[in-house]
Structure formats: structure tokens, C-alpha cells
Amino acid sequence: MGLKSWKLGDGVELHAGEYPQDAKIFMSDEEPGIEFPDLVPNTVRLLIVSKRLKNGMEEVNRGPVQYLPLSIYNHKKRLASTDYFVVNPLGTVDVLDTSASKIEYLDGKVVEITKYVLDPKKIAQAPDLFRIKEAPESYVVSERVLDAWRKITPKPTNITFFILDVPAT
């Protein structure tokens, strides 16, 4: 994708011709396994998921998202799977209670967030999958998405959740 790759990290919509029709990633030689997790770890913080997780999200999500097909090639550079997607939640959502959250700033820009506290009024209107305005590299999913994923059998793999603080109103 070249110079346009920043869009996937920031939640900016990709237009026709900006995403390769034959998009692919290769398994790392540093990770010798050949199993395919439902959530694929990567060094560029993209949300790469199996078709199973994508279908669960798509079923309940009410927010703007792009689902971009992705093929995975094995260590021998042979096609291993075409059942993966880069999920690009578009835009960011202002949901943090910035006074209750622990945010480190430098020259007015967010450097690190060590405690996320969601504002109950703001979160009420949030979509089921989104990026936080102050941390667009972070993805938030709703209970509705989690419930859809919990119905998947066998259980999805390689997923870790952090419950975010939402004070009572």
C-alpha cells in the first residue's frame, strides 16, 4: 500500500484502488507455528481477524467499518489461507472521561494512556466496534460483539480482553 498504509492505522477510509486486490501477509520466521488464530498478532497494530470473527462483528456492528480481505502465506511463501480480513473501524469516537483517565501528554499530544475511564454519557451512543479518539491504535468492542463471538464454536483463539471502566451515572 505504500504511503497510504497510515490510513489503516488511523481509521481513515480506503477508497477504490488504495487497497491491493491481492493483499497478503507472510508468516514470520520468528514464529515457527502453522496454526491460524482468530486474531492475528502483528507488529503494525492492525486488527486482523478470521472470517469467523469478522462475521460475528458484521452481524451486530452498527458503526462504520471496512472489512478488507487478506491472504496469509506460510513460511515457504505458499498460500495458506484466504479467510482473513483487516478490520478498519472508520474514524475515532470521543468516549474517554479525560479527567478520570490517566493520560500522559507531551506538547498537548497524548503519549500514553495507562488507565481508560469511559464517560457513560458518551459511550451510550458509541458503535459496537470503534477506536478511541485519544488512542486510535486501540480497538474497543461492545458486549454485543463479545456475545456474538461467544456463540462461535469452537471458541475463538488468541483474544485477550480488557474491561474498561465505566462509572455509574
TrEMBL record:
This is Immunity MXAN-0049 protein domain-containing protein. Residues 29-161 form the Immunity MXAN-0049 protein domain. InterPro entries: Imm11.
